[in-house]
User: Which sequence fits this backbone?
């Protein structure tokens, strides 16, 4: 019989290798403390640096003897395993002429371990331990965890969506299903429904899709008529969908944004036509303005959208949608990759390609409350609030082989930097801090990193409720009645 997914009480047990027992042999005692030590997170990162140095006489002599170039001579010395500083180099670049009059200089690359933080001791941050969920072949661009913490979905630039049984994974940490929603289109967003029974998947195509918990496609949204000039008259998007979310309280309502200058609200019971269309325009009002992302406020009373030109748009959650409630042009210099509402109902954060994170009060949207600069972004940076609404999180980007992506924490009240951790080589593209599990999931390059603390990360029994489907039996035996006359005791 196939083992059911979703069983198992402690999600942290998934990080521990399972012990196999042979017949007639007593189970081996597993040292859980040692197993968790194996997942302890490193507090240093590897940085690739460059340095210049003068070639040695040996390298120059070998170059002259073999009549090869300086760079080839340096490589030959390295390949011969010579005891030389170049031995540790991973690459080199010749910056001098082949036969210079003065010293001959080469520029080489080398790796250096840099301590970026102290050991984790603050219980507010579940960062002491780390595991990695591998499976994508290109950068992870979308990440979501359902409310129970039992299912994780990730999407990437490899065009695939992977489903992970977070409560029942073994030590290999592999997904149980992989699907390709639309061939040749990267995944732009994944988002679980309120009940966790359906997953909204958005891709670079114009047609979002719905999937079940087990990765089976259940619906495909309609594509609009691209020849209609007024986007309000089309039944669906006509360009690539950039983001999508479920309504926080209305279980059948989803929202999507796209490069066709619209945000659309849908009823999942009828995906042949959207319910409402929210339109944006450029400053001149004559050309289309791609919408990069959208978001509901936690109570659903506000809808926000951010565009390619750095503008920020707000509508009332319940309508009317014909005109936005507020529009701020130039909120960022360049496109905005993410917006997120706070639980307090009036604080909003935005992440831009101008390497900044900005904090706004939606009641006074003219100027940001705070702007955090020098946060490297390669176009897909994320930002979120912590579950208790006390912290702001964002990620930074790094070019391939040029450093590590960082996860940074800021205090929401004081608006000051708190701490940072190095994640991995590459860029931090998505962040999820699950409120029930108290675990932080970070998408960086091709991997999903899961940070947790065995002492503070919560556990939940994700096993599905079972129902006894056995047919009910009825006792058809005739009922018997005692017809003997009732006696009464008349004694005084």
Assistant:
């Amino acid at each position: 019989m196939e083992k059911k997914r979703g069983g198992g009480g402690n999600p942290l047990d998934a990080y521990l290798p399972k012990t196999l027992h042979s017949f007639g042999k007593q189970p081996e005692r597993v040292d859980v403390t040692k197993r968790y030590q194996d997942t302890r997170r490193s507090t240093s990162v590897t940085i690739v640096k460059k340095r210049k140095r003068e070639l040695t006489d040996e390298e120059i002599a070998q170059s002259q003897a073999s009549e090869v170039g300086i760079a080839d001579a340096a490589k030959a010395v390295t390949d011969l395993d010579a005891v030389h500083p170049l031995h540790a180099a991973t690459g080199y670049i010749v910056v001098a002429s082949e036969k210079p009059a003065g010293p001959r200089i080469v520029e080489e690359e080398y790796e250096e371990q840099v301590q970026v933080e102290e050991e984790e001791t603050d219980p507010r941050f579940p960062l002491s331990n780390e595991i990695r969920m591998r499976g994508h072949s290109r950068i992870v661009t979308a990440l979501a965890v359902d409310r129970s913490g039992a299912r994780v979905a990730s999407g990437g630039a490899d065009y695939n969506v992977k489903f992970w049984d977070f409560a029942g994974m073994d030590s290999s940490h592999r997904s149980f299903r992989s699907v390709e929603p639309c061939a040749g289109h990267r995944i732009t967003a994944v988002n679980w429904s309120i009940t966790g029974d359906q997953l909204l998947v958005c891709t670079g195509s114009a047609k979002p899709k719905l999937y079940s918990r087990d990765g089976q496609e259940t619906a495909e949204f309609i594509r609009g008529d691209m020849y209609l000039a007024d986007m309000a008259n089309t039944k669906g998007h006509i360009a690539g969908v950039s983001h999508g979310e479920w309504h926080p309280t209305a279980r059948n309502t989803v929202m999507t944004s796209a490069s066709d200058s619209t945000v659309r609200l849908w009823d999942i019971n009828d995906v042949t036509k959207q319910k409402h269309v929210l339109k944006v325009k450029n400053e001149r009002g004559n050309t289309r303005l791609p919408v990069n992302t959208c978001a509901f406020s936690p109570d659903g009373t506000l809808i926000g959208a951010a565009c390619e030109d750095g503008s920020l748009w707000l509508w009332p959650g319940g309508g009317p949608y014909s005109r936005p409630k507020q529009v701020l042009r130039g909120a960022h210099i360049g496109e905005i990759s993410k917006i997120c509402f706070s639980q307090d109902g009036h604080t909003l954060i935005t992440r831009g390609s101008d390497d900044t994170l900005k904090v706004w009060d939606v009641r006074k949207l003219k100027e940001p409350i705070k702007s955090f600069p020098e946060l490297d972004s390669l176009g897909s940076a994320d930002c979120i609030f912590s579950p208790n609404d006390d912290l702001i999180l964002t990620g930074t980007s790094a070019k391939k082989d040029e450093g590590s992506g960082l996860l940074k924490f800021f205090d929401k009240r004081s608006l000051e930097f708190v701490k940072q951790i190095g994640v991995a080589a590459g860029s931090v593209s998505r962040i999820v801090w699950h409120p029930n599990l108290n675990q932080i999931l970070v998408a960086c390059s091709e991997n999903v990193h899961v940070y947790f603390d065995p002492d503070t990360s919560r556990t939940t029994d994700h096993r599905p409720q079972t129902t006894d489907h056995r047919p009910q039996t009825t006792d058809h035996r005739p009922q018997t009645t005692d017809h003997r006359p009732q006696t009464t005791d008349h004694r005084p």
About this structure: The two ends are 72 Å apart (CA to CA). The CA atoms of residues 33 and 159 lie 39 Å apart.
